[in-house]
Design brief:
This protein is an all-alpha fold. Helices cover about 60% and strands about 0% of the residues. The longest helix is centred in the middle third of the chain and has 17 residues.
Length: about 70
């Protein structure tokens, strides 16, 4: 873990959003950082796309997947 300086405005916003999404302010900032990094690396994806991909990866990691059967 490393300490960084963040503006008080960002901290306040992170506290607000964190309360809504049940995250601490540091976890909210980590979340924003992760989303921002993925958005920069994948400029063609929307926020919804990124959020859904992260959710799908976590579901796969937890084993909450089933084989998709294509209709013929």
């Amino acid at each position: 873990m490393t300490s960084i300086r963040v503006s008080s405005e960002i901290i306040q916003q992170a506290q607000t959003y964190g309360k809504v999404f049940n995250r601490s302010a540091p976890k909210q900032i980590e979340y924003w950082s992760r989303i921002g990094k993925l958005a920069e690396e994948n400029p063609d994806l929307t926020y919804e796309d990124i959020k859904n991909l992260l959710l799908a990866l976590e579901e796969k990691h937890l084993g909450h997947v089933e084989e998709y059967k294509f209709e013929s």
